[in-house]
Amino acid sequence: MKYVIRSVVAMFCAMAFFSPLAFAEKNSGECNFTPKYGRTLFDKDHEGMFLRKAHLILMKANELGLSDEQIQKIKTLDYNLKKSFIKDDADIKSLALDTREATGKDDIDLNTVNSLIDKKYAAKAEKVKDDIQAYANLKKILTLEQNKKLKEMRFAGMKERFWHGRDLHQKPVEK
To answer: What pTM does this model have?
Structure first.
């Protein structure tokens, strides 16, 4: 009986010792381009293309050699797009609520419901179009040299992320 009790106590002590290690974050060697805040609403498809790239450019502004005017233009674009996203999200949620209300009635008017659905998805499409337009404007702010340097930095960061956690001796030989 004492053996069983000792075994159970030893097992609980081991679990208490190793559980913090299992949940610890492994940030060493992490790619510089991963957001510190984790996945967000803007990490889906085209939504947030501008926000991710703007965050990256502003984070690497010194290395890219951005002027104060370029930084200010990027911040202004970022502010305006975030503000429009807030309005668009509110409109989309409002239309979804209206749709739910219209379908909850005993006698459903399909024309009303269909028009609400069309408005909702038109608002979503407009949101994505705004994001892509801001992304195109962002690319115009940078010079060709800055865009090229950004691509090189991004490729280097992706390469580092790909090989993170692997044995360095097992890399394939580059030709």
So the answer is: 0.60
- Residue showing tokens 């994001």: 131
Q: Under a CB-based contact definition with an 8 Å cutoff, are residues 41 and 47 in contact?
A: yes
Is residue 46 a contact partner of residue 81, using CB atoms and an 8 Å limit?
A: no
Specify the DSSP class assigned to residue 51. Answer: H
**Does residue 67 form part of some domain?**
yes
Distance separating alpha carbons of residues 130 and 43, to the nearest angstrom: 16
Maximum Cα interatomic distance, the chain, rounded to a whole number of Å? 76
Number of domains comprising the chain: 1
Q: Which domain holds residue 103?
A: 31-170
The highest-confidence range among 27-31, 43-47, 108-112, 168-172, by mean pLDDT, is 108-112
Distance CA 42, CA 65 (A): 27
